[in-house]
Amino acid sequence: MSEAEFIHRFIPAPRGSTARTVLLLHGTGGDENDMIPLGRDLDPTAALLSPRGQVLENGMPRFFRRLAEGIFDEEDVIRRAHELADFVGVATARYAFDPKRVIAVGYSNGANIAAAILLLRPEMLAGAVLFRAMVPLAPPVLPNLTHVRVLLSSGKQDPIVPVENAERLAAMLREGGANVTLRFEPAGHALVLGDIEAAKEWLRTL
Ligand code: MLT
Fold it and tell me: Is the pTM of this model over 0.90?
């Protein structure tokens, strides 16, 4: 398998190819099947592209290596973010969807790789829903994100992502010019109904 190839599922838009494409990015231990029901629930009209992370941590797929909980191997984050962005480019041609209408929806590790793509390859995404995301890397320069809208849905009692870290990510994205909505659920790292409802509403107005 070439570096720009990922095990993945692609589900065409139910009503044809004019709809947007939702790039689904699972959390640690997930795979390409995990996020499909959530993606379809969030946006019933979108095409869905769902790759499986290529890093294995004790047999659990992830999108990049970490040294410990919340401590990331930044070199690997950068390499993997570029590989995933390249894959999205390849998939755009293969499945003939609009490259300007790709919205990432990621949870935890999947949200973190989506944030890394926003910081390193911002042209690949028009928007992102980031559930329980944290700062994935410190980019030397902030990209131009004026074309991007981001919903950050975080947990007030998340033991993995401190509130301050989610706020720092929001500030970084805003500094690049992104239109960022940062919201907190009275919840931990797991998703709750409020996250889903907020994401649906946000996607409806995108
Ligand atoms: C995870 O378990 O996926 C972490 O909380 C986030 C990450 O390592 O990227």
Answer: yes
